[in-house]
């Protein structure tokens, strides 16, 4: 079929879902522009595109969250125009979001019941959950509380909630970005099984290799338009990336760095869990040198956020535990640490790293007020904040109308580029980042990684905390693993295999994977 579906080469009855001419304009942005494509029964169909290409807008339209300005959709051959997600669900469309919408204090079964229009009695529901989870190889105990589940298990709850509706079309928005490689494999086994039963799956991801390995078809969006429809198994990752960006990607350049003196020493750092669901940090030891990238891997929830907080100053620690270039910062708060040159970019960009309702210019003040001299004598220097935001936008190719745009109006990946850029341009002595390319497209991820390496080349020490092992291997000089709040000794990355890393990560959630294998 042609990208725009106008020729109608595919018979309507063959497609579970079909769209023609879908368009949606936001102020200043044509988010979706005359989109046409179709998804067949039993197909795992990838939706690919750079940050801001319009993928989320498209799937939100299909799920009844966004009203298109123009265009039409069909589901199972019948005209389809959902007024809201409830209408989408009752027509047979289900969606698993990037951010889970589960209540921590409630059990699996209670959460599933909340999402249903008319939930069956509790006993019957628990039995249905057990049945579906057994049928699809998704082990889950209906009586467990969400707070005690790993990211992969939480996602299973969302998937099971969808499966109980017997969807014809299941939409998944970047489902593997929070999963370990093993959990990702389990997910794909489930999707395959679903597809074998005729469900169509629309799958958004930035992981090109994953799409090549598991998807049957890929529709590629660029600037709101469909630019190609390909069989991803027959295209190289480089080909897919170049279709997305309309050019070729540069490989990351690691050259020109040399290891200088130690800039950060962490010694015997222990800290109690900041919340009931948090992780206790136990006796963390690390030393970071100027010009060096230290990669820290681990399954989500093993102390990544807590370690970043203990380094950024949101969690204080006993004297002598966090020392930057000979200065003991253990008792210093975030502002004092930033002034001293220890900067950090947390994982949660909307809410923690940036305030959604504030403009990008105002968001520079969160971490740059003192260090960038954006406020003097307690007075905000608006012109300086705007200029700094403009510099970040230009240097990091943040796609946005300008510094006055609210953070929440940016697509996820573009906000991530802004948050990382804001710290990189802050000339840190040490920069700590958590999941720096989470939700970021291949082109932008490469430029963020290059910016981190360039910063190291200039003499900064960088700590990259990430769940993306390929990213850690690409960036890091040394690698350490976080497991239940403990950090392994760092080893040289050169020659390190994925198997060895798997062993280093070991333990935490290994049981659950072993049960399924
Ligand atoms: N509610 C909104 N108000 C204004 N602009 C919006 C809104 N939602 C999306 N946009 C803009 O529409 C464009 C498409 O965004 P969309 O979120 O669909 O992209 P995406 O391909 O899903 O990106 P990402 O991979 O970064 O999540 C972007 O330029 C974005 O800034």
From TrEMBL:
- Quote one Gene Ontology molecular function term: ATP hydrolysis activity
Q: Please report the stretch or stretches of sequence annotated as the ABC transporter domain.
A: 17-248, 264-509
Matching Gene3D superfamilies? P-loop containing nucleotide triphosphate hydrolases
Q: Is Chaperone there in the keyword field? A: no
- Which SMART domains does the entry mention? AAA
Q: Which InterPro entries match?
A: AAA+_ATPase (IPR003593), ABC_carbohydrate_import_ATPase (IPR050107), ABC_transporter-like_ATP-bd (IPR003439), ABC_transporter-like_CS (IPR017871), P-loop_NTPase (IPR027417)
Source taxon at top rank: Bacteria
Q: Does the keyword Nucleotide-binding apply?
A: yes
Ordered alphabetically, the record's keywords are: ATP-binding, Nucleotide-binding
Residue intervals passing through the bilayer: none
Protein's UniProt name: ABC transporter ATP-binding protein
């Amino acid at each position: 079929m042609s990208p725009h579906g106008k020729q109608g080469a595919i018979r309507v009855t063959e497609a579970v879902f079909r769209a023609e001419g879908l368009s949606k304009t936001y102020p200043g942005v044509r988010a979706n522009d005359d989109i046409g494509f179709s998804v067949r029964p039993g197909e795992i169909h990838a939706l690919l595109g750079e940050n801001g290409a319009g993928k989320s807008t498209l799937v939100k339209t299909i799920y009844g969250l966004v009203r298109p300005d123009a265009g039409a959709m069909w589901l199972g051959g019948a005209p389809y125009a959902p007024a809201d997600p409830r209408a989408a669900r009752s027509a047979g469309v289900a969606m698993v979001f990037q951010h889970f919408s589960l209540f921590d204090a409630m059990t699996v079964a209670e959460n599933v019941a909340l999402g249903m229009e008319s939930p069956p009695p509790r006993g019957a529901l628990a039995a249905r959950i057990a049945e579906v989870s057994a049928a699809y190889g998704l082990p889950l105990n209906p009586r467990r509380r969400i707070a005690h589940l790993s990211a992969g298990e939480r996602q299973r709850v969302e998937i099971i909630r969808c499966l109980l509706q017997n969807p014809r079309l299941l939409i998944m928005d970047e489902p593997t970005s929070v999963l370990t490689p093993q959990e990702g494999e389990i997910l794909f086994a489930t999707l395959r099984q679903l597809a074998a039963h005729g469900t169509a799956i629309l799958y958004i991801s930035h992981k090109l290799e994953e799409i090549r390995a598991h998807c049957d078809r890929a529709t590629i969006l660029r600037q709101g338009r469909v630019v190609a429809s390909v069989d991803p198994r027959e295209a190289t990752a480089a080909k897919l990336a170049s279709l997305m960006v309309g050019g070729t990607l540069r490989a990351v350049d690691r050259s020109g760095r040399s290891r200088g003196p130690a800039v950060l020493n962490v010694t015997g750092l222990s800290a109690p869990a900041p919340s009931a669901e948090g992780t206790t940090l136990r006796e963390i030891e690390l030393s970071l040198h100027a010009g060096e990238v230290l990669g820290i891997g681990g399954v989500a929830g093993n102390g990544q956020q807590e370690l970043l907080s203990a380094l950024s100053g949101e969690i204080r620690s006993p004297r002598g535990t966090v020392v930057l270039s000979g200065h003991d910062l253990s008792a210093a708060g975030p502002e004092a640490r930033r002034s001293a040159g220890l900067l950090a970019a947390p994982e949660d960009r909307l809410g923690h790293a940036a305030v959604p309702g504030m403009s990008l210019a105002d968001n520079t003040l969160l971490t740059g007020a003192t260090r960038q001299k954006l406020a003097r004598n307690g007075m905000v220097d608006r012109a300086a904040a705007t200029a700094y935001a403009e510099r970040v936008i230009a240097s990091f190719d943040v796609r946005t109308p300008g510094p006055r745009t609210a953070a929440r109006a940016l697509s996820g990946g573009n906000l991530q580029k802004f948050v990382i850029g804001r710290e990189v341009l802050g000339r840190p002595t040490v920069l700590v980042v958590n999941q720096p390319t989470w939700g970021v497209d291949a082109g932008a991820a490469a430029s963020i990684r290059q910016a981190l390496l360039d910063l190291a080349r200039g003499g900064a020490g960088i700590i990259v905390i990430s769940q993306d092992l390929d990213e850690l291997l690409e960036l890091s000089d040394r690698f350490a693993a976080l497991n239940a709040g403990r950090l392994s000794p760092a080893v040289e990355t050169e020659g390190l295999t994925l198997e060895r890393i798997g062993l280093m990560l070991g333990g935490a959630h290994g049981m659950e994977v072993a049960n399924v294998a």
